[in-house]
User: Which sequence fits this backbone?
């Protein structure tokens, strides 16, 4: 049997096929059109483009693996979280989706907090009101585009829009639903009280499933668009962070992942809803029944390096430098960058500041600094930002015994070494670091009964590929630099306010 995972990311949609041993049989990615940002802090995408990319990616993956559609036993979905996909009664897109990094909803977040109170919000949903969450985006549309809101018959998350096209079913999973601010995370159900407080009807929301549960089948239209066989079962899957954690084997307490993609996430599995009373971390359902997660998010992690490349790494021929070339150049600068520090708040910041108005800062620049210093400062600044989550884990007594790295931060030897030094702990990489699509494929395998549970699946297929320990001298430098880094945000706020 083979299992297909589909990940609807920000930059593209990826399709990945694994076999019963967890080996990757084939994979393909189709890029999305760049998200639109018509104003500062806005980020929108066309859901139809996700569906287009899904069809292309699945066709490519099947061709690469020389697979027929009927050789796929089950399909799992993952994708970017928090986006608001608004559909009318005919399931047509009402307006471009407001995606996860859209932070225009500061007023709606503030109004919710004033109306309900932070403490009560955390009691109801395990989370405070943040600009990133789906609910605040819906409220923005309701307040600012009332004619559009009148048309809305269904609110979906990005991957679930693709599921709708694949199967005709309105469904989501507990992990992804946790990021809407409409889920009773502790009890794994839509929060009737929260819906009542914001005057939204539960009929707007999709049906809830646990991640490995089958929630639909590939429809005739889905089969025509992708090459999959009509009737192939589809499991609920999970939001990208929970799905990526499954793919890295982060399913039991004390195992933590630090993943650097467009955003950056430090993620820990827990056996109970672990709460930060100040709301600096997200507490969500995990992609395993009866398991939860706690995570901190850096809005612009890999996005910071991409921003630098796009603005300052384009040659006269219009070609952008590779990330490998940039990190190779950064290795020429010493740890600590001779006092140069970067705060990666290019899209506001979630953990630990919960501040959509935060702005990126480059501190300590001198005439002796080179481009290599700036690039390395970006790499270090992203890791400092992720370390803020580890600091909060200590405060709320979330254990950390094993750190597994994922995303672009795991592919670069320099970025791995930087992270080990800044976290002050040995870090691991896994053999099949394939991101959220791999986790979605594992969930599909569980749905097809190839493994009896998600835990059993991870035990069977997730293997550690390598480790890297911190250099003691570098760690001392990084510890001093981190203490200075933590002073940047208050200073920035005093200047900008």
Assistant:
């Amino acid at each position: 049997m083979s299992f297909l995972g589909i990940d609807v990311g920000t930059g593209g949609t990826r399709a990945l096929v694994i076999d019963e041993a967890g080996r990757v049989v084939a994979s393909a990615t189709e890029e999305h059109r760049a998200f639109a940002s018509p104003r500062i802090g806005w980020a929108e995408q066309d859901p139809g483009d996700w569906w287009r990319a899904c069809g292309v990616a699945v066709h490519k993956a099947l061709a690469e693996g020389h697979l027929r559609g009927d050789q796929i036993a089950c399909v799992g979905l993952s994708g970017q979280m928090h986006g608001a996909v608004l559909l009318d009664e005919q399931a047509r897109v009402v307006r471009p989706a407001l995606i996860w990094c859209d932070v225009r909803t500061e007023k709606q977040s503030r109004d919710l907090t004033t109306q309900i109170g932070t403490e009560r919000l955390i009691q109801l949903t395990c989370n405070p009101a943040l600009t990133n969450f789906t609910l605040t985006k819906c409220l923005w549309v309701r307040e600012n585009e009332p004619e559009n809101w009148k048309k809305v018959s269904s609110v979906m998350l990005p991957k679930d829009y693709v599921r709708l096209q694949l199967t005709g079913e309105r469904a989501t999973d507990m992990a992804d639903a946790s990021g809407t601010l409409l889920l009773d995370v502790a009890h794994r159900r839509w929060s009737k009280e929260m819906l009542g407080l914001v005057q939204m009807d539960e009929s707007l929301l999709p049906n809830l499933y646990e991640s490995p549960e089958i929630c639909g089948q590939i429809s005739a239209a889905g089969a025509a668009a992708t090459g999959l066989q009509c009737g192939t079962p589809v499991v609920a899957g999970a939001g990208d962070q929970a799905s990526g954690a499954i793919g890295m084997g982060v399913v039991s307490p004390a195992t933590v992942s630090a993943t650097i993609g467009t955003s950056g996430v430090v993620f820990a599995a827990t056996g109970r809803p672990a709460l930060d009373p100040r709301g600096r971390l997200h507490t969500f359902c995990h992609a395993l029944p009866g398991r939860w997660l706690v995570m901190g998010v850096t809005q612009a992690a890999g996005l910071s390096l991409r921003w630098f490349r796009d603005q300052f790494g384009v040659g006269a021929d219009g070609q952008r430098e590779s990330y490998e070339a940039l990190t190779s150049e950064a290795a020429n600068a010493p740890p600590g960058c001779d006092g140069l520090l970067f705060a990666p708040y290019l899209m506001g910041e979630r953990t630990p500041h919960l501040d959509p108005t935060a702005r990126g800062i480059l501190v300590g620049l001198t005439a002796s600094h080179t481009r290599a210093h700036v690039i390395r400062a970006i790499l270090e600044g992203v890791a400092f930002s992720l370390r803020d989550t580890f600091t909060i884990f200590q405060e709320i007594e979330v254990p950390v015994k094993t750190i597994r790295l994922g995303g672009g931060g795991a592919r670069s030897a320099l970025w791995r070494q930087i992270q080990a030094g800044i976290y002050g702990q040995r870090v691991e990489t896994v053999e099949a670091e394939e991101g959220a699509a791999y986790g979605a494929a594992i969930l599909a395998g569980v749905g097809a009964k190839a493994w009896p549970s998600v835990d059993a699946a991870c035990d069977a297929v997730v293997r550690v590929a390598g480790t890297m320990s911190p250099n003691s001298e570098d760690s001392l430098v990084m510890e001093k630099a981190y203490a200075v880094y933590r002073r940047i945000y208050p200073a920035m706020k005093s200047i900008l306010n």
